[in-house]
Amino acid sequence: MSELGPQSSFFVLVHGGRHGGWAWRPVASRLRAKGYTVLTPTLTGLGDRAHLLRPDIGLDTHIEDLVATFEYEDLDDVVLVSHSYAGVVVAGAMERLAPRVRTVVSLDARMPIDGESLIDLAGPEYADVLMETVRRDGEGWYVPVSDSSYWGLTDPEQIAWVNAKITPQPIKTYQDSVGSTKQFWSHPGMFIECNPSVTGEIELERVRARAAKDSRFHHRYLDTCHDAMVSDPDGVTTLLLEAAAQ
């Protein structure tokens, strides 16, 4: 265990879009080796739950997945970590989970304010391309898989591993707006910016503004791709341990 000070012994790691709990395996194994309890829930319709894929799965479904993990595992004093799309899930879920969370870590994750959706955060150009892809290759209701080099991976073994496991995702989860995010934005937290980051410039401006005035919020950098939990699990683990010790 770290000697930096009081820390949580629980991590909940929430995966990004079209990924699953499997994506955290390299990081989770490192945290468990240090004695931490780590949960990596898979959101409905994705990963090992791909057999549940259906058009009506939305953001609220995934928020309920995360809330249920806390309730059924009796979790408290948790380091809650989101990657990419999961930032929207966590931002919504924090309205109910905040008392059980020590700190929130956003790994190159989307960070919405009240009423925003993932598509809102990504911008109109991305939305146009995405919706055309959904119409052409996703039967009009799901985001099809991409080659994992899309997320910046370059190692052939890592690309092959991720490609073998990614699954489609209902477009509704990208379109649905989150409700209140007050608890998310006021909670102690850390944002880990990858280089290059897929997080929008407006979101980064919010992050930098909060980090400049709020000592409970920390802005960190990793010189690795968006799928950092795969490309640099050591770097991600180091920062998660820092967050746990705060």
Question: What can you tell me about this protein's structure?
Answer:
The chain has 246 residues and is α/β, with parallel strands linked by helices. The chain has a single domain (10-245), classed as Rossmann fold (3-Layer(aba) Sandwich). The chain has helices at residues 25-33, 59-72, 86-97, 118-122, 124-137, 156-163, 172-175, 182-186, 201-213, 228-231, 233-245, and strands spanning 10-14, 37-39, 78-83, 101-107, 142-143, 169-170, 189-194, 217-222. Strand 1, helix 1 (25-33) and strand 2 (37-39) form a beta-alpha-beta unit. Helix 1 (25-33) crosses helix 11 and helix 2 (59-72) packs across helix 3 (86-97). The longest helix has 14 residues, at 59-72. The protein is globular. It starts with 9 loop residues before the first strand and ends with a helix.
Radius of gyration: 17 Å
CATH superfamily name?
Alpha/Beta hydrolase fold, catalytic domain
What pattern of helices and strands is seen along the backbone?
EHEHEHEHHEHEHHEHEHH
What does the overall shape look like?
globular
Average per-residue pLDDT, rounded, comes to 95
Q: Residue ranges: pLDDT <50 for 5 or more in a row?
A: 1-6
Number of DSSP helices? Answer: 11
The CATH topology, please? Rossmann fold
Q: How far is the N terminus from the C terminus? A: 13 Å
Condensed summary:
The chain is an alpha/beta fold and 246 residues long. It contains 11 helices and 8 strands.
Please describe the structure with a list of short key phrases separated by commas or semicolons.
6-stranded parallel β-sheet; 41% helix; alpha/beta; Rossmann fold; globular; 8 strands
